[in-house]
């Protein structure tokens, strides 16, 4: 494999490979590599440090089995910050914890457009996941990070347009920490917001502050599989330009906003499209 030094495209999406051959690290002309599978054993298998010289990678890259990264120094060798042509990055931790140093070393370059963090196994988000340093990020998905106890301040991401949060199972309350505190504008460009399978989520609070704009572009809200969520913030329902709201498998919300008989139906009567389960 390492002899194909002029190879530019290696498509391995949806394969069942448990590792990649060591020679990939010498393919410095490579532009397309859908998935990089991390190994921690054997001289002929790729460790994450073998990404170091693949700085021509562009488009989309998924890095799987990240729990096998041995230590911070090995993660630093990947030099993800130098992969400036990447547009979309997926980091899959397989639900297992990695050290804080390893998580820190996986910080991508600041011009990334799309990021997916899957099965992150720690209770706290790492610093770079908590900051607004990803200034060009438009799409973000946090999936199956079931041990996390609170949301990062995603409202500080200046151009984020689409946010999907799936199964952060330990989160019971979402409040001001979600909006962030370093800016007078929270979620200035967010248009689509989806919460999916938040089984323990009970309260969502948006406390309005003078001189602070919140979710000023939100047009689509979907709540799916959040059975304990008691109500939606008045600010989200009445002070954002919502055009479509979808509520599925969330019995308390469906009863609260149900047409004609729901106690808070009047709060969403102005939204052009409101859908419930089965509609």
From TrEMBL:
It comes from the Eukaryota. InterPro entries: LRR_dom_sf, LRR_R13L1-DRL21. Coiled coil: none annotated. Residues 48-167 form the R13L1/DRL21-like LRR repeat region domain. Transmembrane segments: none annotated. This is R13L1/DRL21-like LRR repeat region domain-containing protein.
């Amino acid at each position: 494999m390492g002899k194909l030094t002029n190879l530019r495209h290696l498509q391995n999406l949806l394969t069942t490979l448990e590792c990649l051959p060591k020679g990939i690290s010498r393919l410095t002309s490579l532009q397309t590599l859908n998935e990089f599978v991390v190994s921690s054993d054997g001289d002929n298998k790729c460790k994450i440090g073998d990404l170091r010289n693949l700085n021509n990678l562009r488009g989309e890259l998924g890095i799987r089995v990240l729990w096998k990264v041995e230590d911070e120094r090995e993660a630093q060798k990947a030099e993800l910050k130098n992969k400036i042509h990447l547009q979309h990055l997926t980091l899959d931790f397989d639900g297992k914890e990695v050290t804080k140093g390893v998580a820190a070393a996986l910080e991508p370059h600041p011009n990334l457009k799309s990021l997916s963090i899957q099965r992150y196994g720690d209770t706290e988000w790492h610093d770079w996941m908590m900051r607004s340093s990803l200034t060009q990020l438009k799409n973000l998905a946090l999936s199956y990070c079931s041990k996390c106890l609170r949301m990062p301040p995603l409202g500080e991401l200046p151009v984020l347009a689409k946010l999907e949060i799936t199964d952060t199972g330990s989160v019971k309350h979402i409040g001001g920490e979600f909006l962030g505190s370093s800016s007078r504008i929270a979620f200035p460009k967010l248009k689509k917001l989806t919460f999916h399978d938040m089984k323990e989520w009970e309260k969502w609070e948006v406390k309005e502050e003078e001189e602070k704009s919140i979710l000023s572009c939100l047009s689509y809200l979907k709540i799916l599989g959040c059975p304990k969520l008691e109500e939606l913030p008045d600010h989200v329902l009445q002070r954002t330009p919502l055009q479509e709201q979808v509520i599925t498998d969330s019995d308390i919300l469906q009863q609260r906003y149900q047409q004609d008989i729901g106690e808070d139906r009047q709060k969403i009567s102005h939204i052009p499209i409101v859908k419930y389960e089965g509609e």
